[in-house]
User: Fold Apoptosis-inducing factor 1, mitochondrial from Galendromus occidentalis.
Amino acid sequence: MIRKLALGTAAGTGVAGALYYTQTQRQPPPPITEPKKRLPKYELPTKVKYLLIGGGASSFGACRGIRAVDPKAQVLIVGREDYLPYMKAPLSKEMWKSGADKDRLLFKQWNGDYRSILFEKPDYFANLDSLKQPDERRVAFVGGLSAVKVDPVEQKVFFDDGSSISYEQCLITSGTEARMHPKLANLPGIEKHLLTVTSVEDFKKLQQSACEDESIAVLGSGTVASELAYSMSDFAKRSNAKLKVTQIFPEAGNLSSMVPEYLAKWLTKQLISEGINVIAKADIASAEIVAKKLHLHLTSGQRIVVDKVVLADDLRPDVKLAKASGLEIDPQNGGIVVNSELAARSNLYVAGDASSFFDPRLGRRRFEGHEHAVSTGTLAGRNMAGARKPFSKQTLMWSDIGEIVNLEGIGLLDPSLKTVSAFFPDSPEENTDFEGKITKGVVFYKNDADVVVGILLCNVFGKASTARRIISEQKPSLDLKEVAKLFYEKYSPEEEPEEATIPNPVTES
Ligand SMILES: Cc1cc2nc3c(=O)[nH]c(=O)nc-3n(C[C@H](O)[C@H](O)[C@H](O)COP(=O)(O)OP(=O)(O)OC[C@H]3O[C@@H](n4cnc5c(N)ncnc54)[C@H](O)[C@@H]3O)c2cc1C
Assistant:
């Protein structure tokens, strides 16, 4: 639990949920001021030493990494969104729970404390002008500004308002973007029926829709889609809203692109039993708008009438800026190609969801997850400041599918690999009709050489470093039922170093 707290989330609600909900007597802290902070009349300096593009988790990590090596660094963060740098993970879960304060972007942690989704308090950020004072050790942020092109030779970035800035070191953290469904793309008037789930503004629209609409379809089987389907449905139940949530995807079950089939089907059954209309093995065949409602004709023959559709299927790396800048895009995983030091070109780095990095153990890959973004951002920042270190950490992603299960995944989570499951106390033995309740479990993913390359932990807390170690050691032919016992041992805080600690701007000064 300690690491989860350190990461600033209320992950682990499956176990800690009871505690979370019983501490409702606590009052929210006083306002931390309006999170939006656009600088209305900004004038960019002509040059900055460190320029970070994007205001998400990797940028936050990079800021820390730079300042760990170069404590007097002057850093400028430029983000497309009108919000100070913030974390996205709570937008599909914690921000939907009782006690969350959506206006001030505060959510309740498992221990009952409030925290903001913002990484830093507004007063952490300096006035842009202070970057023009060479002796000032400052971080400034400009929101509502999009980088449209980087010239890696001239070391210059161009923005959508016509301005530009030269840099000594630059980091791109463009994250992911929603994918338009091909059958909806050309439907006249469809815009009014579409929602996405990648930003605070998206979250606010989703909340409004959950309060007002009768029917919403979430497209996609992945973690964000599944978390959101649960959260919206649960929110509607608690607030007596009339909303009915449908989740539609072509795969066999929820999280099919990550977990073995029996687990995916099990998850689907659990979500259905929570009142969500999950339609697996179906896609939109055609759509029409009739009397302000969207009629979805599915490949399964079903017809669903909804007010809105959430495009939560297959969030893809946002590579618009990279393409416009002539950077290499990985044809396999769609990310921006970087080397082991996370550099795409000289003095130009990429971190987080958008990067396709080289992992010396597991090969070239892309990984989406908050901790990965903070860790790659931190390393990129350190390297920008001269550290020249390769990225070698096995980072993790986590997901809370409501109260159903908490998942933590490390390494290659590819269900097309051979998997071995070990659940406590009873193992489902890859049974495709698994009906039981998951207490704790581990799924190992093995490559052709019988080496563990990925580990998924189900309701197992504080054991990520054990999983990292097993993947890093690359020992073949392990007795995995024995190895699994390491994950059932009692959690010891000493075992899990606090990594990627994020201060809580609400409770810490
Ligand atoms: C709803 C949701 C829930 C999630 N839940 C979890 C979870 O429970 N656990 C987990 O491990 N991970 C979770 N994730 C994934 C995690 O949030 C991401 O892995 C992480 O945010 C990636 O960080 P990043 O810095 O690469 O990109 P982001 O955090 O996406 O930040 C990128 C930012 O860059 C901006 N940007 C893009 N292009 C430009 C440009 N050209 N100019 C200026 N700005 C630009 C974008 O607007 C965006 O704000 C979730 C993601 C979402 C969307």
Q: What stands out?
A: The chain has three domains: 31-85+120-177+317-384, 190-313, 413-495. Residues 223-238 form the longest helix (16 residues). The domain at 31-85+120-177+317-384 is CATH 3.50.50.60 (FAD/NAD(P)-binding domain).
